[in-house]
Amino acid sequence: MSVFQSTHPLVKHKVSLLRDADISVKAFRELTNEIGALLTMEATQDFALTEHTISCWSGDISVPTLKDKQPTLVPILRAGLGMLDGALKVLPCAKISVVGLARNEQTLAPDTYYENIVSDIATRTAIIIDPMLATGGTAAATISMLKESGCQHIKTIFLVAAPEGIEVIQKAHPDVSLYIGAVDEKLNDQGYILPGLGDAGDKIFGTL
Ligand SMILES: O=P(O)(O)OC[C@H]1O[C@H](OP(=O)(O)OP(=O)(O)O)[C@H](O)[C@@H]1O
Ligand SMILES: O=c1cc[nH]c(=O)[nH]1
Ligand SMILES: [Mg+2]
Known about the structure:
Its cofactor is Mg(2+). Pathway: Pyrimidine metabolism; UMP biosynthesis via salvage pathway; UMP from uracil: step 1/1. It is an enzyme of class 2 (transferase). This is Uracil phosphoribosyltransferase. This protein has about 210 residues and is of the alpha/beta class. It has one domain (about 5-205): Rossmann fold (3-Layer(aba) Sandwich), CATH 3.40.50. Helix content is about 30%, strand content about 30%. The chain has six helices and 13 strands. The protein has helices at about 10-20, 25-45, 80-90, 135-150, 165-170, 200-205; strands at about 5, 50-55, 60-65, 70-75, 95, 100-105, 110-115, 125-130, 130-135, 155-160, 175-185, 185, 195. Strands 1, 4, 5, 6, 7, 8, 9, 10 and 11 form a nine-stranded mixed β-sheet that branches. The relative contact order is 0.18. Bound molecules: 1-O-pyrophosphono-5-O-phosphono-alpha-D-ribofuranose, uracil and magnesium ion.
């Protein structure tokens, strides 16, 4: 598995802005989408190309085009929806598979309440999008769900991740790549990332 922590100055700057305790819902939403787009660029940089002949104004030429089918984006409800528009700016033709998982606040175990994965998932790369990787339970369960549906290539994008969650994914799913805006220090006793962003879903949906 590869763990890629972005070194892009724009990603670092925008994640820093997200951490402001007084940030507005509007600013949080905008930045979440902007970082989502930048991390989608990073996660697609190894996509394979093939040569293809087209009629150009100057005659027939060979051009590089994407070799494989469009990927499927997999936003994890709710908070993953906050990155979807940004990811679609980079991948406007992507299919979308939606899964719904919520952490039980006492046990921190994920509860799955929705699953709608594209039927031809076996032939597409899946790119999971979620702002937060905390204990890793939600992402690990989502990856298992995709694999059970036949998915063979999985990438994940997170704005902020805890070392604990990265380790869980590394152990359970060593074949999956992680693209992360910032790796933070640790989890607190309630399973929140420190310093983190707080509850990303609440900040995106304005349900604080
Ligand atoms: O790594 P974990 O410990 O599993 O935690 C991460 C999950 O927690 C948050 O979702 P939450 O359960 O709050 O649901 P929401 O998106 O509906 O707010 C977050 O968006 C991740 O999906
Ligand atoms: O820090 C955290 C952990 C889980 N979910 C969040 O939204 N924030
Ligand atoms: Mg939440």
